[in-house]
Design a protein that fits this description.
Pfam families: Lactamase_B. This is MBL fold metallo-hydrolase. Keywords: Hydrolase, Metal-binding, Zinc. InterPro entries: MBL_Glyoxalase_II, Metallo-B-lactamas, RibonucZ/Hydroxyglut_hydro. The protein is an alpha/beta fold and 210 residues long. It has a single domain, classed as Ribonuclease Z/Hydroxyacylglutathione hydrolase-like (Metallo-beta-lactamase, Chain A). The chain is 20% helix and 30% strand. It has five helices and 14 strands. The chain has a six-stranded mixed sheet. A six-stranded mixed sheet has the order 7-8-9-10-13-14. Strand 9 and strand 10 form a beta hairpin. The chain is globular.
């Protein structure tokens, strides 16, 4: 398995391409710059099979429809944010952009934790709310990495002052779901550089004592 980070969109949100040896890939959080993303996928001869969203804030969804329509693939989002894709007051674009960012409804709703299998890809889904009510993290034991969205960053954690954010819930999500992963697990966050579970356990100032 291979991964590539692509900062995209108005605030350079990390989109990830997670691919296998057959050049199939999952597109995780395509936040914007659709033409650039399509061009990269074509240049790399990658074949997207699904779009996975860690959550549905505007900066993670901006290129969803273009990628979905180009490759005719399904979009996955947690059920708690089912309506956020189509509603700019929920996905925060109304407040931050001065205008609406909307995409079509998701094709598949994540209803619970467990194994998500898409073709040859198998990911463990963890519900990690706090930054938003439907935030999820996708863990690949095979690749030794977790896509944490805006729950956990290198040296920081997600903001909780947006709609239905909850600081205590976020800390609990990180403590119960992410910090229990193997310490050498690579953490691929929604913003900024990669880190590891071990590094965040040792040095993250928001997680001291865990």
């Amino acid at each position: 398995m291979k991964w590539r980070r692509l900062p995209l969109g108005p605030i350079q949100t990390n989109c990830y391409l997670f691919s296998n040896d057959e050049k199939e890939c999952l597109v995780i959080d395509p936040g914007g710059d659709a033409n650039k993303l399509i061009s990269i996928l074509q240049q790399q001869h990658l074949k997207p099979v699904a779009i996975l969203l860690t959550h549905a804030h505007f900066d993670h969804i901006g290129a969803v429809d273009e990628i979905r329509n180009e490759w005719k693939i399904p979009v996955y989002v947690h059920k708690n944010e089912k309506d956020w894709l189509t509603n700019p007051s929920l996905n925060a674009s109304q407040n931050f952009m001065g205008g609406a960012v909307t995409v079509s409804e998701a094709d598949e709703l994540i209803k619970s934790e467990g194994t998500l299998t898409i073709g040859s890809f198998s990911l463990q889904v963890y519900e990690t709310p706090g930054h938003s009510p439907g935030s999820v993290s996708y863990y690949s034991a095979e690749a030794g990495l977790v896509f944490s969205g805006d729950a956990l960053f290198a040296g920081s954690i997600g903001r909780t002052d947006l709609l239905d954010g909850n600081h205590d819930q976020l800390i609990k999500s990180i403590q119960d779901k992410l910090l229990t992963l193997p310490e050498d697990t690579l953490v691929l966050s929604g913003h900024g550089p990669e880190t590891s579970i071990e590094a965040e356990m040792e040095r993250n100032p928001f997680l001291n004592g865990f």
